[in-house]
Amino acid sequence: MADQVQPVPASSQSSDDASFTENPGKGRGSFPKRGEPVITGINRVGLWSLYIKEVRRFLKVQTQTIWAPAVTTLLFLVIFTVALGREGREILGVNFATFVAPGLIVMGMMQNAFANSSFSLLSGKIQGTIIDLLMPPLSTGELMTGIVTAAVTRAIAVGAAVALAMAFYPGVDLSLAHPWAVAWFGLMGAIMLALMGLLASIWAEKFDHNAAVTNFVIAPLSLLSGTFYVIDNLAPTFQIISRFNPFFYVISGFRFGFLGQSDIGDTNSALVQSALGLGLFNLVFAFLVYRILASGWKIRS
């Protein structure tokens, strides 16, 4: 005789449904209430995945993203030392090649930090893949941190490649006088430009917009910040203008780490004030970029 299927009492069905809806977390196979976060605190797995994705993106084309900037920066050193340094010209008590090398290193770091972070969101908006960054369970702070830290990683890689190339260039001495200044000002410069790049990628709608920021904002601020000269040679008005350029403090502070002297001053106290000022500037700037990113401006519309 065939088995007969016994109907489940309605009371039993309602009690089972209640275990899924009214008492989440209790019973077998229960789910949290709608809108209740499953991941609390920092999503370390998601943050690490985003960081690795961004790092692998520029490492896949490292000839273009790391070694090409190193060669370009080295060419700056060759051209300027040949043009200005043949007669043993000295600045801040060292030959011109040794003077200009630290500025070129940190300038390459900053420009590539900007290039890396400015590509992340912009490429997604143009290719229609930005949903891959917005849909994962990442908070605004985690998304911002992953992109910025990847850009800083590229900046450090470029700086190391440039320094390695310059170490073998005749007449360049890269001895460290104050390692803390090299580490701090290099890091602050990379973070500052990574934040600028992220802001540019939020605003830009096509690659031409991004190129405009690079050519008309980043390049002038980098080249007119004391990379190839000391600001004491400028007219008083332009000296004042230079001191409002945050790139000036990054390059001068980074140079202080190698030479023990800079345009800012020759004492640790003067450099500490500049270091704290850059740190405060980056904190305020990071908060501004965070608020814009969290608003969804030009991203979710």
Automatic annotation (TrEMBL):
<feature type="transmembrane region" description="Helical">
    <location>
        <begin position="270"/>
        <end position="293"/>
    </location>
</feature>
<feature type="transmembrane region" description="Helical">
    <location>
        <begin position="181"/>
        <end position="204"/>
    </location>
</feature>
<keyword id="KW-1003">Cell membrane</keyword>
<feature type="region of interest" description="Disordered">
    <location>
        <begin position="1"/>
        <end position="35"/>
    </location>
</feature>
<feature type="transmembrane region" description="Helical">
    <location>
        <begin position="247"/>
        <end position="264"/>
    </location>
</feature>
<feature type="transmembrane region" description="Helical">
    <location>
        <begin position="143"/>
        <end position="169"/>
    </location>
</feature>
<dbReference type="InterPro" id="IPR052522">
    <property type="entry name" value="ABC-2_transport_permease"/>
</dbReference>
<feature type="transmembrane region" description="Helical">
    <location>
        <begin position="66"/>
        <end position="85"/>
    </location>
</feature>
<keyword id="KW-0813">Transport</keyword>
<protein>
    <recommendedName>
        <fullName>Transport permease protein</fullName>
    </recommendedName>
</protein>
<dbReference type="InterPro" id="IPR000412">
    <property type="entry name" value="ABC_2_transport"/>
</dbReference>
<feature type="transmembrane region" description="Helical">
    <location>
        <begin position="92"/>
        <end position="114"/>
    </location>
</feature>
<feature type="domain" description="ABC transmembrane type-2">
    <location>
        <begin position="60"/>
        <end position="296"/>
    </location>
</feature>
<dbReference type="Pfam" id="PF01061">
    <property type="entry name" value="ABC2_membrane"/>
</dbReference>
<feature type="transmembrane region" description="Helical">
    <location>
        <begin position="216"/>
        <end position="235"/>
    </location>
</feature>
<keyword id="KW-0812">Transmembrane</keyword>
<comment type="similarity">
    <text>Belongs to the ABC-2 integral membrane protein family.</text>
</comment>
<keyword id="KW-0472">Membrane</keyword>
<dbReference type="InterPro" id="IPR013525">
    <property type="entry name" value="ABC2_TM"/>
</dbReference>
<dbReference type="InterPro" id="IPR047817">
    <property type="entry name" value="ABC2_TM_bact-type"/>
</dbReference>
<keyword id="KW-1133">Transmembrane helix</keyword>
<dbReference type="GO" id="GO:0043190">
    <property type="term" value="C:ATP-binding cassette (ABC) transporter complex"/>
</dbReference>
<dbReference type="GO" id="GO:0140359">
    <property type="term" value="F:ABC-type transporter activity"/>
</dbReference>
<feature type="compositionally biased region" description="Low complexity">
    <location>
        <begin position="1"/>
        <end position="18"/>
    </location>
</feature>
